[in-house]
Amino acid sequence: MYRINAHIPKPLICIVAGLLLALAPFSVSAATDTTTMVPANFSKLAKEAKPSVVNIRTVTTVKGGGRVFRHFFGDQHGKNPFEEFWGPNMESGPSRDYKQRSLGSGFIIDKEGYIVTNNHVVENAEQIKVKLADDKEYDATLVGRDVNTDLALIKISTPNALTPIRMGDSEKVDVGDWVVAIGSPFGLEQTVTAGIVSAKGRTIGSGQYDDFIQTDASINPGNSGGPLINMTGEVVGINTAIVASGQGIGFAIPVNLAKGIIVQLKKSGEVTRGWLGVGIQNLTPELAKYYQLDEDGGVLVTQVFKGDPAEKGGIRPNDIITAVDGEPVSSVRALSGVIANTRVGKRTAVTFLRDGKKKTVYVELAKREEDVRKVKSEPEKGDDLGIELMELSPEYVGKLGFEEGEEGVLVGGLTPGGKAENAEIKRGDLIKEVNHVKVTSIKEFRQQVDKVESGESLNLLIRRPRRGFVVITLEK
């Protein structure tokens, strides 16, 4: 109730009273919204999750330094933040091997001692140490890892009871929901940060299975592999990436994507994905109009790889795939996800449109081979540029999405910190020309590079898989 003084003029009293009454519902509503929007149980969530979150320390031998070292111990301009303590010439002199010690996070998923973390936390690690919330430390063994989704599974053995964290459903997470990230940023164990889900389904260019939850809960180096939990204490994501020089932007792998990966890693130590054997792209409004499509959704087949399941099943270029085993697909990401998560060898129904007519064929999915990660021949060094070169075989023409008859020299690997990597050449790039001269073999590439004097520039015309042409200049 509002008290009004008697000496205030009656018309003014009516106006004020009317305004107060009109605003009253909004005030009450605002107060109510405030109490529901700001969670009061962060401390309770942190306390419940604490026994399940672990700190991970690894030791890896790095030959002559590497990107991780420069990333954490050198700023974006190449200056070392510890120069005043170690001197400006800390890394001068001949390159040598050193023991790299890395920090990360993880969380216990069952009482048997299985722990989920990121692949980049434990990749190539010679020693993995896990520290629990009670400060007890254990040696961990690597069960399996998946490079494509940046997930890994490790295991510890202990006679003591472990507290597994509860797994949630990332499909039920909405933009604007509160979430909590727990981990060891910069080695600061059991750090709790809170924020909201800023976006879902983010693609950040880390791979074909990009499907990240974006959050403004603070995530920093060392948080990798730690859980992103909802307001009921369930894991909805695995904290994975940050934007360089960014604030309030972090990314987590949706737990629903991770669940199937974890099951495979636990069972066999590796992940096997289905392969249909097609090149695909999203339908634009213009393409939908061109193909006179009456229904929404679908993925355009741009290429069918010879001898692969799609060709054997009768799928052709310009077909528009609309469903797999009855499940609608409306984007490249959706189709890739469904096929990748389908068992190899399974007889799979693929529904598509051809000339406006709906058809369904059955294909037996093959095993997907890793593009340039598993090369059959040893890459050859590219002089002192830091490029490992490969001849372009028909196998990689298709798998990398190049056109039939494409020519060039394939980048199979890069020397960390080399000239090529620093110039932002990437593995899988196809070098077409060197200083405007066409090259179709490693021999031709070397001949053109040899014509350039040390200190002079090399202009490389490159075709980047599924991205188009780029020109990169580097100094020999």
- Described by the principal axes of the CA atoms, the overall outline is globular
Order of the strands making up the biggest sheet: 5-4-1-2-3-7-6
Strand content: 25-35%
Quaternary form? single chain
CATH topology grouping of the largest domain: Thrombin, subunit H
**Annotation field: number of helices:** 12
Radius of gyration: 28 Å
Instruction: Tell me about the largest β-sheet.
Output: 7 strands, antiparallel
Helix-strand category: alpha+beta
Helix fraction by DSSP (H/I, runs of at least 4):
10-25%
Mean pLDDT: 79
Features:
alpha+beta; globular; Pdz3 Domain; single chain; 476 residues
Short précis:
The protein is of the alpha+beta class and 476 residues long. The protein contains twelve helices and 29 strands. The chain has four domains: 1-38, no CATH class; 42-271, Thrombin, subunit H; 274-367, Pdz3 Domain (Roll), CATH 2.30.42; 380-475, PDZ domain (Pdz3 Domain, Roll), CATH 2.30.42.10.
Could you explain how this protein is built, in words?
- The protein is α+β, with helices and mostly antiparallel strands and 476 residues long.
- It has four domains: 38 residues, no CATH class; 230 residues, Beta Barrel (Thrombin, subunit H), CATH 2.40.10.120; 94 residues, Pdz3 Domain, CATH 2.30.42.10; 96 residues, PDZ domain (Pdz3 Domain, Roll).
- Helices cover 22% and strands 34% of the residues.
- The chain contains twelve helices and 29 strands.
- 32% of the residues are buried.
